[in-house]
Amino acid sequence: MSAPYELPALSVTWAMPDPPMPARDFYSWPLVAFQKATDLETKLGWAAGSLHVLAEAFRLQLSRKNGWDISGPPQSEPFQTAARVFRRGVALKNQAIGSKQGQYPIRFLRDLDWQDLAPDHQLCIIDQEVADLYHLHPKPNRIFIRLNELTKNLESVADLVHAARRNPFKTAWTIIGGGIVADTAAFAAALEGQSFRLVPTTLLAMVDACVGGKTGVNFPPYGKNQIGLFAFPEEVVIATGWLKTLPPREFLAGLAEAWKHAVLKGDAQLATQVAGLDRRPEDLYLHLRPLVAVKAEVVAKDPTEQGLRASLNLGHTLAHAIERISQDKNPQNPILHGEAVGLGLLFCIELSHLLGHLKQTAWQSMRQQLLQSRIVISPDQLRVFIRTDDLQDIHLIEEILIGIKQDKKNMSQDGSEWVLLKDWGQIVTDQNRHTIVVSDQDWIRCYKEFIVQWLKS
Question: What is the pLDDT of residues 201-215, one digit of tens each?
Fold first, then answer.
């Protein structure tokens, strides 16, 4: 018998254009000849040259709003394949504009009901760490995968697609794991045209990664989650029973995203409660639904991130740059995504204040909450993660700025784009844009001031 669902389910309704982003202008691709398909293209079933087109698009720094004119090259298939997944989809010139829509539930339960979470009649993609921890035995319908940020790439997608094609279970996929597994396996399912359901096993995945329809993987050396698709699940099942075995570091990393949602909701009391949580999943349970609802409501209004959804990037611009540096310099012990987000949130609060946007009282309360919580790592921890003795080193600052400007959401040629705050629940907007362009000079000045104040705290 299934465990009782003590919290009401959330219903997420979404609608989006296809392709997902209208073109501001079109880049005309030159004539190019492609040779034999690479092994990776063959495994993915992609046309020869698809990977070359992707790499060239990143080298050219094309944005999501640069449509592609592929009337010149005689071979269109590699460009069509690449356009479909480049930054989750760009428009082709003269492409017919369609639309997609759907609805899915997010269910909540306290305990783990394996027959509900991992039914024997469905193909289940399961995080190997979850399988090891819960002593799950191999079954014909189970595929175990072990991933991290370094292996969150197209090679892993190809391996998963290959394994699923060989599996006798031709059903919707049930994907069980943290955010990395969810992003990767959902992308693989979407490439295959396969429906899927998500069972997040980490706090970060529960409040963020499994809500919103973004799937994708990293594309080195061009950054995080640069290749992917918008694809929405059939349902999401959130069971807080997973949190009982979640390592403390992972739990705290998830709290960063939860705190961000409370800030965007404008609920200072909820943010205070989240910041005060430690290893008490039972206390978190009653807060989960409103925290998940924040992202679900934003995604319903703006699934393809043309406006409001950009606000969910609060804290992530710096976070992604720090993650990339950490993975390069300390691959054996890199910073976790949520840890980087916690630091990014603290920085965005300071940036918003130093640029004159954030109200004094809100700045003080937000800053105090984060610094008194365990959400934000210490300066010493950051030094270890990125292997530096000096957080103000000019070469490090330049490296961070390069990473910031390569963020897939950055479309400014005059600086970098940031989600900034005016008050609890209030984002600084510029006409219809939910990001503000900050010049490189202002960013460097604010970063240096931030480090000085952080070291004093």
Answer: 999 999 988 888 999
* pLDDT tens by residue, 163-207: 999 999 999 999 999 999 999 999 999 999 999 999 999 999 999
For residue 320, what are the CA distances in angstroms to 75, 303, 383, 410, 432? 35, 21, 16, 12, 24
Q: Where are the beta strands (DSSP E) in 295-450?
A: 416-418, 421-423, 426-427, 436-438
Phi, psi of 438 (to 5 degrees): -115, 125
Q: Spell 16-53 as b/e; 16+ CB within 10 A means b.
A: bbebbbebeebbebeeeebeebeeebebbebbbbbbbb
SS3 of 321-361 = HHHHHHHHHCCCCCCCHHHHHHHHHHHHHHHHHHCCCCCHH
Question: Is there a contact between 385 and 333 (Cβ–Cβ < 8 Å)?
Answer: yes
d(CA 340, CA 59): 26
Q: Cα Rg for the chain, rounded, in angstroms?
A: 22
The kind and range of the H/E element at 187 are helix 179-191
CA distance 356 to 136: 53
Rounded to an integer, the average pLDDT of 44-52 is 95
Tell me, what's the pLDDT at 1? 38
**Predicted local distance difference test score (pLDDT) of residue 406:** 77
Overall size of the chain counted in residues: 457
- CA dist., res. 348 & res. 358, Å (int): 10
List Cβ neighbours of 60 (8 Å cut-off, separation of 6 or more): 27
What was the pLDDT predicted at 33?
76
What pLDDT score does 204 carry? 93
d(CA 386, CA 381): 9
Pick the closest to residue 158 from 291, 330, 285, 37 (CA basis).
37
Among 2-6, 69-73, 217-221, which is the least confidently predicted range? Answer: 2-6
Confidence of residue 306 (pLDDT cuts 50, 70, 90): confident
Residue whose token pair is 């976070």 = 319
123 - beta bridge partners?
A: 173
Residue 166, CA distances (Å) to 13, 143, 156, 159, 170 in order: 33, 11, 15, 11, 10
Nearest Cα to Cα of residue 210 among 192, 196, 224, 194: 196
* Residue-level pLDDT at 280: 62
Distance of CA 365 to the CA centre of its chain: 27
Q: How deeply is 422 buried, as exposed, middle or buried, from its count of CB atoms within 10 A (0-12, 13-18, 19+)?
A: middle
